[in-house]
Design goal:
By secondary structure, the chain is an alpha+beta fold. The chain contains 7 helices and 12 strands. About 25% of the residues are buried.
Length: about 270
Amino acid sequence: MISDLYKRREKLGYVILFLLLLVFIGWLIFQTPETQREWLELAFFLLPLGFAVSIIMISRSHYNKVKEVNIPNSQRSITELNHVVIKKDAGIIPRLLLFEKNGEFIGMLKPINTPWWLYPLYMFSEEATLMFPQSYGFESSDGKTLFTFNKRGWLKQVKLSIYDPNNIKLGTYIQEELKALFNIKGKIINEKNENVLVIEASGFSGDFKWYDVEGKQWARFYNGLFPHEYTKIFRDSQNDIVELSDQLEEKDKIRLLSVIGYLFMTRIKQ
């Protein structure tokens, strides 16, 4: 799984490099520099080219380190856990990979039933696809879909309709999108149309601690190195770790995980 992640990052680096080279060559053909200053200004293109090359080289290096490492699948359902480690996959289609802190793979959150016309948009801008309705599903390590949610709305308000594995609606998450740039605010409503949790988080960092009306903590986010024996695999970046209350009912945990998945799928800081 992790070796696949780095392989996709490497391929993505090649795609970026190819597109940048096309732009660079096109610029040389149609806007050929005539003076020394213009040639120096053209050196600006070397920065993004170097960035793309660095993605390829680093990803290849990490791939060679981990290609023989076998990360086991978790034997527990995500609704049984009191923590998840979240890593955003590298690729055209956005996906979240979820792990236990001991390194075992829990599953992934990914778009499902994606309209064909959205795929070209993913290639150009993942952010642009957020304007359109989309469905997401969490698939466990053994390939079972444990919950899904449908996202509707964009500019003024976002609404997630959350469903269990039998497609029975468990509730709704409503977020005022205009306020989401700096401070994310929303609320989770259960199937009885009752407010169960108020959501607040930072739009830049994703920092949060969420408490219900009784003052009980439902979830806490912190950012750090992967605290397990596979730390050397993940040390290239900070890892998002979410602690979940072990006092939550399964329905509440599904509602909570759906909201967390959506926020991390769309957060500003990736």
